[in-house]
Design brief:
- There is one protein chain.
- Strands 2, 5, 7, 8, 9, 10, 11, 15 and 24 form a nine-stranded antiparallel β-sheet that branches.
- The protein is 24% helix and 26% strand.
- The protein has helices at residues 2-29, 292-295, 307-310, 391-440, 449-461, 466-486, 516-527; strands at 30-34, 45-46, 56-60, 67-71, 76-88, 95-103, 109-111, 114-117, 135-144, 147-157, 164-169, 181-188, 193-198, 201-207, 214-215, 223-225, 240-242, 259-261, 278-280, 302-304, 321-323, 335-337, 349-351, 366-375, 380-388.
- It has seven helices and 25 strands.
- It has 540 residues and is α+β, with helices and mostly antiparallel strands.
- Disulfide bonds join 109-144.
């Protein structure tokens, strides 16, 4: 038994030694790695440019003893750069770019991407690092408004024109929408394959030389539209035209209004012409501290006229409007096929003077890593920035540096969501009950107040009945409204069927365009939120 125990101990020690050796080997295999366990001062250089006032901080990741590079202020621009000991050649073998980013306070508008910069001979200095500093690759999350993507941008020189062009990966993955640590990985392979991973999972694959994967394509089109060719003045590209032989019918009245007064409508009995719908509140009194000179002439607040509650209506009665059967709108000649139609004009294609071929992208070497961002949120933490030539090395770093933190954060998030779920439900129900109590105090529901209060009390005692109670109270309210409309002295509003306007889409008439009056009516509806304004009693 003692021998077995010694053997097990030796196996454990051997395994632990192997793990340590693997980790050490991974560190040796990394071209660049920064865990930010040590302060960044002296290693990373903060830009002195005036626009970049954001303060960087060496800070622990929330809930961990692990340190990172922290964005501390909102609504600021930030710029910081780290020079590499040796430039990294991206054309030789596989290259892996990887780093962690955590939005500890969420991210609504801002970037958290890295820029992999060209050598300083390209025209930049660390202390002057800004958004114009020349980079070879830009990679990482960016969120603002409709933008939500993990960028991958290759900036490559066109050997024909000499200009640098940004080539954006098409359909990049979306950014995780939480406050957890996430690791972003870009794998550049010698066969021109590009893979984007989030948390070790492949989210996007593409090929650098495919026109379907990069915009604009890294290899330009062989031909381009001739920029000097102009469309001939006599080129007619209208498919259909107004019929030149069409004549407006003699009985077409463009001035007829869309609506007219309903001359058959009669004023309901009991209508109080001399009463206003609102009156001064007889119980209101002028405040003692009211100063007419400073506050103006005091006026009593208005209340609904109680006489109108039982009457069929108050104020000046006006006949309701109905659709005018004679309305046709503006006449337009019908459309016919254009006999002179020549098709859609486009310039002829000519050879592209900037066309070139290559068997792999021309990657400029990477000489530095920079973070140059503008963000509306603070609390963005960068950590474990890695450049390696082996994707297995990157995987090992993910497993040893990112994954343990993520598991802890995920469990904490799950527990908080479960706790918040019950709290949010209780808060929602409280809000619902508060609104329902206000409904119960509405005057025209006074007859049903006790019934509504009874429903609310049952729901408060048994929260799972909230939805059912809501339905019951809605039924009560609808019943009250129905009774209010169809009971009492009121006579039903006079309604008559109206004639449908004449069809204006025949061969003699319209081009299919909306009449001017109808367009005005739609504009009026749009201004009021798409619905017709509420009618007052005098309009019924």
């Amino acid at each position: 038994m003692i021998m077995m125990g010694h053997f097990a101990l030796l196996v454990f020690l051997a395994f632990a030694s192997m793990q340590l050796l693997c980790i050490a080997a991974d560190h040796d295999a990394a071209i660049f790695y920064d865990s930010f366990e040590e302060p960044f001062n002296g290693r990373w250089i903060v830009s002195d440019k005036d626009d970049y006032k954001g303060i960087w901080e060496h800070s622990k990741s929330e809930g961990h003893d692990d340190y990172g590079l922290l964005v501390t202020e909102k609504a600021r621009k930030y710029a910081i750069v780290k020079e590499l000991e040796e430039p990294v050649n991206l054309r030789d073998g596989t290259t892996v770019l990887q780093y962690e980013a955590r939005f500890q306070n969420g991210l609504e508008c801002g970037g958290a991407y890295l820029k992999y910069l060209r050598p300083q001979e390209a025209g930049w200095k660390p202390k002057e690092f800004d958004n114009g500093s020349p980079y070879s690759i830009m990679f990482g999350p960016d969120i603002c408004g409709l933008t939500n993507k993990v960028h991958f941008i290759l900036k490559q020189k066109n050997p024909k024109s000499g200009e640098y062009v940004e080539h954006h990966l098409i359909d990049p993955p979306r950014v995780p929408s939480d406050k957890l640590s996430h690791v972003y990985t870009a794998i550049l392979k010698p066969d021109n394959e590009i893979s984007i991973l989030i948390d070790g999972e492949v989210k996007k694959k593409g090929n650098f030389l495919s026109a379907q994967d990069f915009d604009p394509p890294i290899i330009p089109a062989k031909t381009i539209p001739d920029p000097n060719e102009k469309k001939p003045e006599d080129w007619d590209d209208r498919v259909r035209i107004p019929d030149p032989n069409a004549v407006k019918p003699d009985d077409w009245d463009e001035n007829a209004p869309m609506e007219i007064e309903d001359m058959e409508a009669v004023k309901p009995e009991g209508w109080l012409d001399d009463e206003s719908e609102e009156i001064d509140d007889p119980e209101a009194t002028k405040p003692e501290d009211w100063d007419d000179e400073e506050d103006g002439v005091w006026e009593a607040p208005k209340i609904d006229n109680p006489k109108c509650q039982t009457a069929s209506g108050c104020g000046e009665w006006k006949r309701p409007m109905k659709r005018n059967p004679a309305f046709k709108g503006i006449w337009n000649p019908p459309l016919v096929d254009n006999p002179n139609y020549k098709g859609i004009w486009k310039p002829r294609d000519i050879p592209n003077p900037n066309y070139f071929e290559l068997d792999k992208p021309y990657f400029d070497p990477i000489a530095a890593i920079g973070i140059e961002i503008w963000t509306m949120q603070e609390g963005i933490l960068f950590d474990n920035i890695l450049i390696a030539k082996d994707e297995n090395v990157a995987e090992s770093y993910r497993d040893t540096t990112w994954k343990p933190k993520f598991v802890v954060e995920k469990e904490k998030q799950k527990a908080e969501e479960e706790a918040a779920g019950s709290d949010d439900l209780g808060g929602f129900q409280k809000t619902v009950f508060d609104v329902l109590y206000k409904f119960a105090d509405i005057p025209f529901l006074s007859k049903y107040k006790l019934q509504i209060l009874d429903f609310i009390e049952k729901a408060e005692k048994q929260p799972n009945l909230t939805i059912g109670v809501l339905v019951s109270i809605v039924v009560v309210i609808l019943t009250a409204i129905f009774m209010l409309i169809f009971s009492g002295k009121k006579q039903p509003r006079v309604e008559k069927k109206t004639e449908v306007a004449a069809d204006t889409s025949n061969d003699q008439g319209s081009s299919g365009e909306k009449p001017a009056e109808e367009e005005k009516e739609e504009e009026k509806e749009n201004e009021t939120g798409g619905a017709a304004p509420r009618q007052r009693r005098r309009d019924t």
